[in-house]
Structures are given as C-alpha cells and as structure tokens.
Amino acid sequence: MSIRNSSYRIDLQDRISAIATDLANIADIRSHHPDLADAIERHGDALNAAENSILIRTTADRVNELQERIFGLTNAASATRLEEAEAKPPVDEEEIYGVEGRLLTRIHVYKERDKGFAARAKKFYKDKSGGRLVCQCCGMDPTVVYGKDGERCLEAHHKIPIEELQPDSITRVDEMAIVCASCHRIIHSKKPCIAVEDLAAEILSAKEGGAG
Q1: 62 membership: H or E segment, kind and range
Q2: Is 80 exceeded by the pLDDT of residue 111?
Q3: How far apart are alpha carbons 60 and 22 in whole angstroms?
Q4: All residues at 6 or more sequence positions from 100 whose CB lies less than 8 Å from its CB, including other chains
Q5: SS3 for 79?
C-alpha cells in the first residue's frame, strides 16, 4: 500500500517503520529539531488513525519538507537515521554520503542504489588526489591509455556489499572505493568479496616479485 505526495510515492510500510523509530527517539530529535519532532508526532497520529489519506499525505509532506531543509535531499524516511549519519566523524573536510539499500519491488525484489552517489564518490576521490583518478587496487590511470574518456573504465565499489545493507542504510564515501573494471571483477570473484586493501597488497607483492 502506498500514497503519493506531489513528487514521489511514499510506501506506508516504510513510513510506519520510520515513524516508529523516530517516535522512539523523539526526545533526541526534539532537542535538535523541535519543528521536525512536532511534524513527526502529527504524522504518527495520522498514521495511527488511518482514516484520512489526505491528512496522512499532508503530514508526510511536512515531515519530508523539514527533513530536506535540515538534512538535504534524501530518500531516507527516518530522521533518526539521518541524525546518526550527521553525527559520524567527517571524511576529510566534507561528509559525503548516500542513502541506499531500500527494498524495491519490480518482478523481483532488489536493493536500490543511490543514483548519482557513484559519480559523487569519483569526484571526491579525484579532487582529493589533485584531479587524477586511478584504480585504488592496481594504480592504473586509464586516461593514460584511453585519453580523457578513460575514467569511464573506473567503477565505484561498495566495500559493504549492497545485499548486506539494511533499508535506508547510510553509505559514506569512505565506504566506497574506485577501482578499474578488471580489479572490480576480481574483487567480486569470491564470497565474501576480496577486500580492496588485500587485493592492492597482492598486486603490489606480485609487481615487486616480478621486478626482482
């Protein structure tokens, strides 16, 4: 079952779960964001009454409006999760995260990826390294071989596999790695996946052995 607001579909089961989490932590939310706490309580009352879909929709809109104003655009339903994400220590000077892992249903159930987060992660690491993006396992700079379009050979890898994420999980940029397609394939060749650091160490060891 779902309802719609002006811009997207709200799944009632997700909303009920999020509101239950937020109501359990309402005192903490109120200490930081009293207007949001009031909106969450009003929406919780509307869901509990379950009689007026217009009231459910409008109170949901208000919660979403305040969350976006406070935390930025996100698909996370829970203010508690967003506060937890903000409380994490920053990555260098800027905290970059995406919300992923929500269960969506088509013909099969699959885990949602945050569209655009991979691109943001690439930009973060490129800026961090002075404008040069290389594979964090083998060190390949594909632009040397393929020119400016070579960066398309580099992919964003989730260090925590998507299938292990809980709904609305917060993925930080330091939980992503930028790797070439070949290394990415090797990483996923085993279960559990090979750690990026372990593969990088193996490649370095192989290079040093070959040089000797």
Answers
A1: helix 53-71
A2: no
A3: 13
A4: 111, 112, 113, 114, 117, 162, 165, 169, 171
A5: helix
CA-to-CA distance for 45 and 47, rounded, in angstroms?
5
Whether residue 2 is predicted with pLDDT greater than 60 in this model: the reply is: no
Q: What is the DSSP letter of 10?
A: E
Per-residue pLDDT tens over the stretch 152-203: 899 999 888 877 777 767 778 888 999 999 999 999 998 889 999 999 999 9
Is residue 153 within 8 A of residue 178, CB to CB? The reply is no
Rounded to a whole number of angstroms, the CA Rg of the chain reads 21
Provide the token pair at 153.
């050979």
Domain limits, the chain: 2-86, 90-211
Q: Tell me phi and psi for residue 75, to 5 degrees.
A: -100, 10
List strand residue ranges (DSSP E) for 48-167, in order.
97-100, 103-105, 109-111, 154-158
pLDDT at 61: 84
Lookup result for tokens 């309802």: 3
| 185 close to 155: Cβ distance less than 8 angstroms | no
Separation between Cα atoms, residue 123 and residue 129, nearest integer Å: 10
Contact residues for 66 (Cβ-Cβ < 8 A; gap 6+): 33, 35, 36, 39
Identify residue 109 by its one-letter amino acid code: V
